[in-house]
Amino acid sequence: MKILWKRALVTGAAGVALVSGVGLATASPAAAAERNVLQCNAWISDDVAIGDCYNPGTQLHAFSVRAICGWAPDAYSNWVYVKPGTSSAIGVRCGPLSTGVGGVAIEYGG
Q: The whole model's pTM is what?
């Protein structure tokens, strides 16, 4: 009897999890599809980390550029908000004690 009771609990919990998961998956497919639709390019030009993003979506999205610096802490740009159908670019330099920009990263959100 104990084994049947344990199996019923496990099966019931799995059924609740499955029903909850199906409800979540069907509740917001459009929101999940447009989480980050920014199309971005990043490059280094004259010791400046540059990021340029285009927003083909229907919602406002934001990005920031991170300069990966040598012997200094990484540098971060301000957040840039990109309206639907437009593009924006921003650049950031490393600090004076750095050996220069070694890489560029785009961060999404804001």
A: 0.67
Q: Cβ(55)–Cβ(83) under 8 Å?
A: yes
Place of tokens 């980390």: 49
Rounded-to-integer distance, Cα 12 and Cα 71, Å: 56
d(CA 95, CA 38): 28
Cα separation, 5 vs 11, whole angstroms:
10
Q: What percent of the chain has pLDDT over 70?
A: 66
What angle is formed at CA 83 by the lines to CA 81 and CA 88, rounded to 5 degrees? 60
φ and ψ of 36, to 5 deg: -140, 100
